[in-house]
Amino acid sequence: MARRVMGWVLILFTLALVGCDHATKAVAQAALERRGPLSIVPGVLDLRYAENRDMAFSLLRGIQSPAKVAVLLVCSMVVLGVVLLGWWSSRRASVTEQAGYALIVAGALGNAIDRGVRGYVIDFIHLHRWPVFNVADIAIVAGGILLGIAMFRRARQEPREVS
Question: Is 54 labeled as catalytic in the residue annotation?
Answer without folding.
Answer: no
